[in-house]
Amino acid sequence: MTAMGCIEIVCGSMFSGKTEELLRRVKRAKYARLQVVVFKPKVDDRYDEVKVVTHEGVSTEAVPIASSGEMLSLVGPNVAVVGVDEVQFFDDGVVEVCEELANRGVRVICAGLDQEYRGMPFGPMPRLLAVAEYATKLPAVCVRCGAEASRSQRLDAMEGQLFVGGAAAYEARCRRCLVARAVEP
Ligand code: ZN
Question: Measured between alpha carbons, how far is residue 25 from residues 18, 87, 125 in Å?
Answer without folding.
Answer: 11, 16, 20
